[in-house]
Design goal:
Blueprint: E1 7-11, E2 15-20, H1 23-26, E3 34-38, E4 45-48, E5 62-63, E6 65-71, E7 76-91, E8 97-110, H2 120-137, E9 142-144, H3 154-163, H4 175-178, H5 195-199, E10 216-226, E11 236-238, E12 241-244, H6 247-251, E13 254-262, E14 286-296, E15 299-309, E16 316-318, E17 328-330, H7 335-350, E18 353-357, H8 364-387, E19 394-398, H9 401-404, H10 413-419, H11 422-428, E20 431-433, E21 438-439, E22 444-448, H12 454-474, E23 479-481, H13 486-493, H14 496-517, H15 524-529, H16 534-553, H17 555-566, H18 590-609, H19 615-640, H20 642-645, H21 650-658
Parallel strand pairs: 15-22, 18-19, 18-22
Antiparallel strand pairs: 1-2, 1-5, 2-3, 3-4, 6-7, 7-8, 8-9, 9-10, 10-13, 11-12, 12-23, 13-14, 14-15, 15-20, 16-17, 20-21
Helix pairs in contact: 2-17, 7-8, 12-14, 18-19
């Protein structure tokens, strides 16, 4: 069977063939349109013109991309994308259209023709490893393109083009040099499983390397043919500001999109991955790029604005024990050094950092915020001394969203914007190019709360909105007299496009939250419609309960899957099964039994001498009272034995044990 615009897989006992079915490749002379993998270890890869002999076709599937090769107990497995879906097209540079795809399903294919014999326990483990890879990559959070480097921002791609001497030629460097050599390793999730093929690059000849797709995890959404129409064509006067469009600007089309990239350097889930590691990599680190594209004088103008989020970059974590809000544990030693490493990389990559810290000023988050502020000050002083400059490349802005915006007063987010000077916005700017000339974004906002989810996405959406308004002004789509006041923003919110804008940021927040915490974001109605509703509050309550159950009982499986795929955990037959360890669940201590016995005895005595005279009423009250005592007993038992009940990641525990 032949699948157009894809690969076919054919297997016999000695070889695996990956055949390119595109017509322009199949009919071209001299091009090697088939990749042959020898199934005898050590494996060899070779690009050939066609299948060299009549293979017995025992496996044939449509393959949209080769994720890589991973080794488990039985041997090495090919990971192949067998189902994907296009989620939009992105044009960059002009006349270069790139299709962006989301992975929907992957398949694993054993390469070894002489597989290892496995015991019954090893067979179970092998099935578990394979299922973990399949579940992780098929959850709809991984994206790829055959022709565009999704790991790099538009600004970084443009700079790389200049370095490669291809400025203005309208063409990209070949994918093998533009992605696997120059891709941003922070966001490439399958670098580890591609090592075998990257080491065999030369032996593949002219087999099209685009099939070795780089994967990013995150979010992508783009909207074309957008229009900006204000509800009234007359001036909208609010608080001294005027927002105005005319019929010409209302008819003009533009594109808008978001692309978020999650880091692969410190992977994990909400309660099991916090803070920074000793190299300065932080949990839930996400770079979000906001696009705006419009044509001017026949040229495609592309604007890009980058923001980042990430866990507070000191060493801290939780003791997961069934508490709804487990206590934060901060490691004193090395935290300042780790923060310095983190921001040193941030400044090298983005230049000035405007750090927006949204943690609460009370409770468990207070100490975390204070330690962060103290470490930031020390890092800022050290950076000035090292650079021998008075320029402060670290600007710290604390803002307690819960304090200022409680009781649905989200208009008070304007107080945060007031802390950011107009000069800072202007100096940072945004990246813009017409294909020939460009202006760079200098610096970025780094926003965080405790989880870097709900409050963070809300603020990032607001910052993105202010930058987009500036872009609309610069291209003449709107006219605003005076500063962009809160009232002027509300006037713009009435436009259909800004409903789409808020929905896109809401979808982005939900996607990142599901990947890290298992549920959609909280306060999502504020992001989407600008205010909190009764329905939104109920939804937040349901999501909070779901998040509690998910984080304590389900997250560990996803955490294990992530570190397995990225190579942080190496499967070996020398190690015991990571899934065979039994939890140590002890019976409640004697004092708890004594308390329960005392309370039950007290209840019986009270109801025997006091209470209602009717035996029936006494019976009802006694049953209710006993039930309450039992509920108290169970809650105490769960609290005492919480660490034994929660589902702890298995592979991390084994990794630490084997170090």
């Amino acid at each position: 069977m032949e699948y157009k615009d894809s690969l076919s897989v054919l297997i016999d006992n000695n070889e695996i063939f990956l055949q390119d079915n595109r017509d322009e490749i199949s009919n071209a002379k001299g091009l090697r349109n088939t990749l042959k993998i020898n199934r005898n270890a050590p494996f060899q890869v070779e690009g050939i013109d066609h299948v060299t002999h009549a293979s017995e076709e025992i496996y044939a599937k449509k393959v949209d991309g080769i994720v890589g090769m991973i080794e488990f107990l039985r041997g090495s497995y090919l990971i192949l994308i067998t189902e994907s879906e296009s989620v939009g097209n992105f044009e960059f540079p002009s006349e270069n259209i790139h299709k962006i795809n989301v992975v929907k399903q992957v398949s694993t294919l054993l390469v070894n023709n002489k597989a290892q014999f496995l015991s019954e326990e090893e067979e179970r483990d092998e099935k578990q490893y394979l299922q973990m890879i399949s579940d992780l990559l098929s959850d709809g959070s991984f994206y790829f393109s055959h022709t565009l480097d999704l790991s790099n921002s538009i600004q970084r791609i443009s700079i790389l083009k200049e370095k490669n001497g291809s400025k203005g030629d309208g063409k990209f460097a070949k994918i093998e040099s533009s992605v696997w050599s120059n891709g941003d390793q922070r966001f490439l999730w399958n670098s580890n499983v591609q090592k075998f093929f990257l080491n065999s690059w030369d032996s593949m000849g002219t087999f099209d390397k685009k099939w070795f797709v780089p994967l990013i995890q995150g979010f992508f959404q783009i909207h074309h043919h957008c229009h900006l129409k204000i509800e009234k064509k007359a001036d909208v006067e609010q608080g001294g500001g005027k927002v105005k469009t005319d019929s010409k600007s209302e008819d003009e089309e533009f594109s808008f999109g978001l692309l978020s990239r999650r880091s692969s350097k410190r992977v994990g889930t909400r309660l099991h991955s916090r803070g920074a590691d000793h190299l300065g990599n932080v949990s839930n680190y996400v770079e979000t790029e906001q696009f705006f594209q419009i044509r001017r004088e026949g040229k495609l103008n592309t604007c890009s604005f980058l923001q980042v989020r990430g866990s507070i970059p000191i060493i801290w974590n939780h003791e997961v024990n069934l508490d709804y809000d487990p206590a934060i544990v901060i490691q004193s030693s090395n935290s300042n050094q780790v923060l310095n490493l983190h921001f040193k990389e941030q400044i090298q990559l983005y230049q000035k950092q405007v750090v927006v810290n949204l943690v609460k000023e009370k409770g468990g988050e207070r100490e975390l915020g204070l330690r962060f502020e103290e470490a930031i000050k020390l890092a800022s002083e050290a950076n000035r001394k090292e650079s021998q400059s008075n320029v402060d490349l670290l600007r710290y802005i604390p803002f307690d969203v819960a304090k200022h915006c409680g009781h649905s007063k989200f208009d008070n987010l304007s107080l945060l914007i007031d802390k950011i000077s107009e000069k800072e916005f202007k100096d940072m700017g945004y990246f813009v190019t017409d294909g020939t000339n460009h202006r760079q974004q200098v610096g970025t906002f780094r926003t965080n709360c405790k989880d870097c989810l709900d409050r963070t996405n809300l603020v990032q959406g607001l910052l993105g909105k202010l930058v987009l308004i500036e872009q609309l002004k610069n291209y003449g789509l709107i006219k605003i007299e005076g500063p962009v006041s809160l009232q002027a923003q509300k006037a713009l919110d009435k436009a259909d496009f800004f409903f789409l804008f808020r929905s896109a940021w809401g979808d982005n927040g939900d996607a990142i939250s599901i990947q890290y915490a298992g549920t959609p974001a909280l306060k999502r109605d504020v992001t989407r419609i600008g205010k909190q509703t009764a329905r939104g509050i109920l939804g937040d309550g349901f999501s909070s309960m779901s998040r509690y159950v998910y984080n304590n009982m389900v997250d560990s499986y996803k955490q294990d899957s992530m570190i397995l795929f990225t190579g942080d955990y190496q499967v070996s037959r020398k190690n015991p099964s990571p899934f065979s360890h039994k939890r140590e669940f002890g019976l409640p201590s004697t004092w708890l039994y004594n308390w329960v016995s005392f309370l039950l005895g007290l209840l019986l005595s009270v109801f025997a001498t006091l209470g209602p005279k009717s035996l029936k009423q006494k019976g009802y009250l006694l049953v209710i009272s006993v039930c309450l005592v039992l509920v108290w007993f169970v809650s105490k038992m769960l609290r005492i034995e919480g660490k034994a009940i929660v589902n702890i990641p298995r592979l991390i525990s084994m990794k630490r044990k084997n170090q």
